[in-house]
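Thioredoxin: structure, please.
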Amino acid sequence: MATIDLTDQTFEHAVTTHDVVLVDFWAQWCGPCRQFAPVFEESSRAHPDVVHAKVDTEAEQALARAAQIRSIPTLMAFREGVLVFAQAGALPADALERVLTAVRALDMDEVRARLAAQREAARG
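Here you go.
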């Protein structure tokens, strides 16, 4: 599957309607972003079952703020609509592959139970 571009209008739909979504927050002027781009593109070709999406932080500043992007590139991984990974910095191909393997291996029932427990604890 080719990499898709996400906007403020398409972001939520993309991460909630697909099983696994990787999102690369980037900008044209960012050297590490340009370095990571071919790695991300190759991953999209190798894993057509995973949505590989990009958010141009210059064009989508409100979305970048909402996602609390502090540095770029930042990679986020969503599984079944839940943010399960976020890390700034350009990843080498083998590290991106490990992230994807780990995201696929998650027990989402356990993840949801942990999130519910955290929300309950925060309420006091």
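Notes: The CA atoms of residues 100 and 115 lie 21 Å apart.
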